[in-house]
Amino acid sequence: MKGYPQSAPFAMGKFALRGLAQSIARELAPKNIHVAHFVIDGAIRSATRQESPDKPDSFLDPDAIAQTYLNILHQPRNAWTWEVELRPWVEPF
């Protein structure tokens, strides 16, 4: 979603994924196939990766990510989401 100095190869790949998802979404929507692009922008909490006590909720919770995917899966066709950005409150955007 954003390019940074010294990140051209990474940015190119991410921008390409976004364009691919948009193209496939428009191609498959008439066939009732919902395609959404997810941007997960931040660290993800795990058993080996915990946030510091002075910054609670600074990592994304895997269960919260999964819940977002389920919410998109169950959207009615007249209100489909094409892109979702998930980030913890501490991530700049």
Euclidean distance between termini CA atoms:
9 Å
**Count, helices:** 2
How large is the radius of gyration?
A: 16 Å
- N-to-C series of helices and strands: HEHE
| CATH superfamily (homologous) name | NAD(P)-binding Rossmann-like Domain
Helical coverage, percent range: 25-40%
| Overall pLDDT confidence | 92
What percent of residues are in strands? 5-15%
Total beta strand runs? 2
- Domains, number: 1
Uncertain runs? none
Q: How does CATH name the architecture? A: 3-Layer(aba) Sandwich
For the largest sheet, list the strands in their spatial order. 1-2
What is the assembly state of the chains in this entry? single chain
For the structure shown, list the relevant keywords.
93 residues, mainly alpha, Rossmann fold, flat
SSE layout:
Elements: H1 8-28, E1 37-40, H2 62-73, E2 83-86
Parallel strand pairs: 1-2
